[in-house]
Amino acid sequence: MLSRLYTLWATLRTGLWFVPTLMAVGAVGLATIALNLDAGLPEERAQQFWLHSGGPEDARNLLSTVFSSMVTMATLVISITMVVLTLAASQLGPRLVRNFMGDLRTQLVFGMFLMTIIYCLLVLRTLNSELDISGVPHIAVTLGTALALINLFALLFFIHNLARSIVSDTVVRRVDRDLRNTISRLLPAEDDGQPPVEQPTADDVLPADFDERAASLWLSGEGYVQAVEYERLVEIACRHKAVVRLDFRAGHFVIRGSHKADIYPGRLLGPDLATEIEGAILVGEDRTAVQDLEFSIRHLVEIAVRALSSGINDPFTVIAVIDRLGAALGDLMRRELQPEVFCDEAGVVRVVGRASSFHGLVDVAFRQIRQAGATHPAVIIQMLSIIARLAVKVRLSSQRDALLDHAAIIAEAGRRGASEASDIADIEHSYQAVQMALSKSHASGKTTFQGADQQPGDDFREGDQPRMVSPRRLLD
């Protein structure tokens, strides 16, 4: 359920309409309150210096001027925003447009203009030439003037914020912040006092005859897997006394009839179970960061790859991206990655999925930058330097192996792409520094997953038993 709510919230948060719509509704409430306050305002209080004290024509002219000015300013803001979004899409990547649209400051400025326009319209309709001065809503007119002044400063703030938003370093920081928030939300920090352990895999826990006795449920939906409600799947599998294995994860594009969930034992698969399982898998048109760690990493990589294009050729932006990717990988190395095995409260395996490995995440972070920047020694050296710095954070042998493998590939690409002997020597020196740093890292050896077969019981017949594992955190 939380995954569905977060998916909905992510869609609303990255839209330009949600916050302005809320503020437009607020304008109706604000106008109603202001007009009611005017109805109970004593005549002598209406002469306060800070209140509008003119007649109905003066009030109508003032609010009409404010209304037309706000419409003009809103048109200007929308035009500027479209120009900036076009520039950002061409230079930084079209997928980053959602980051600009999700900027709360931009949404608030749009909302302020829309709120003022609607407020002025609602107050204007109460003004007519037959009113005497005592019937003029002085508080409402004064509040309209105050909103106009606020919008002037909001326009200045918007121009300042928009000018900063197209600077590449600002975009890199914003995308990196989204990535780090995703990491913190999906992966809890491990207790430094506890020894790190490798996650169990499907081969560790599934029955030996799983492939022979399982039945396949082919998905009827098509699109990007936005989230998988593992906790709900565990509850479904436990209720039906089954084991479910998925051949996809969040972020994968599933084609109708080509991706499946395997149900063990196969005799349990029926229309009701199939409907329940598909209902726990959220498939949509867009890829999201709800459960997909690679999503935000790819945003940073896209900035770097575009910066390496011949039309832009900006290695400094690439180096900034590599620094942020290195910091994010360092954060990942001290956290427990998303598990592939999910158990019920008794510790019985119920769901086996797919999850991003550290090796795969490093590959997503560096592969395309390595391919595009092979002829840029500075980029190659920077990637090797970041890997060397990550050596002190190594906690598992799988982490060390992943860094060593990618360092070797990066160094080889740099040797082939460099044309100067001095550049090749610098790349070789950086690679040797990586090897030395990783050889000194105190990575623990792989912890062998200990699992024991469940004794035959009510859930399964002889030969149907899944394995027992320690209960683990269930991803929502």
Description:
This protein has helices at residues 2-13, 18-39, 56-91, 97-101, 104-124, 138-165, 168-186, 202-205, 210-213, 230-240, 271-279, 293-307, 315-333, 358-372, 377-390, 397-417, 421-439; strands at 215-218, 223-228, 243-246, 253-254, 260-264, 281-284, 341-343, 349-352, 452-453, 467-468. It has 476 residues and is of the alpha+beta class. The protein folds into two domains: 2-166, no CATH class; 168-215 and 230-247 and 277-476, no CATH class. The strands form three sheets. A five-stranded mixed beta sheet has the order 1-5-3-8-7. Strands 4-2-6 form a three-stranded antiparallel beta sheet. Strand 7 and strand 8 (349-352) form a beta hairpin. Helix 13 runs antiparallel to helix 14 (358-372), helix 14 (358-372) packs parallel to helix 16 (397-417) and helix 16 packs antiparallel against helix 17 (421-439).
Percentage of residues in helical conformation: 55-70%
The structure class reads: alpha+beta
Distance between the termini: 7 Å
Number of strand elements? 10
The number of distinct structural domains comes to 2
Main attributes?
three-stranded antiparallel β-sheet, 476 residues, 58% helix, disordered C terminus, alpha+beta, 17 helices
Short description:
By secondary structure, this protein is of the alpha+beta class. It has 17 helices and ten strands.
List the helices and strands and how they pair.
Layout: H1 2-13, H2 18-39, H3 56-91, H4 97-101, H5 104-124, H6 138-165, H7 168-186, H8 202-205, H9 210-213, E1 215-218, E2 223-228, H10 230-240, E3 243-246, E4 253-254, E5 260-264, H11 271-279, E6 281-284, H12 293-307, H13 315-333, E7 341-343, E8 349-352, H14 358-372, H15 377-390, H16 397-417, H17 421-439, E9 452-453, E10 467-468
Parallel strand pairs: 3-8
Antiparallel strand pairs: 1-5, 2-4, 2-6, 3-5, 7-8, 9-10
